Amino acid sequence: MALVVNSFPLLLFVVAGFCTQLYRGHDFPGRCSCHNTIKFIKGNMSDFQVLEKRPGCDKIELIVTMNRPDNATEKICMNTEGRMARAFFRCWERINKDENRKMECIERKRKAE
């Protein structure tokens, strides 16, 4: 019984470490997703996601999905203060936040390049 009681904190530590590693990079409820941002992107964009303010994150976030040359995708957080992000937000508002019309905003970005 003493071995079980003494081993419990170690087991808890290992499980917590595993869960942290498993969910690293995913959106935690109540936390901001974007910690590092960039102002400008160039390349083949396939999707974007606007995360509105929510409990635990008092800012709007813009996550852009880019297609890399090796056919992999990469999610990039954009600085919402930049001109490109503001253009996405204007387009997002113009299409009334309709997920089915997001390609209109992506096409508009491609024409601007």
Automatic annotation (TrEMBL):
Keywords, comma-separated and alphabetical: Signal
Q: Name one GO molecular function term.
A: chemokine activity
InterPro entries assigned to the protein according to its UniProt record, in alphabetical order: Interleukin_8-like_sf
Question: Is the keyword Coiled coil in the record?
Answer: no
* Coiled coil (residue ranges): none
A biological-process GO annotation: immune response
Q: Quick one: signal sequence residues?
A: 1-25
Q: Which GO terms describe its cellular component?
A: extracellular region
Q: Which protein are we looking at?
A: CXC chemokine
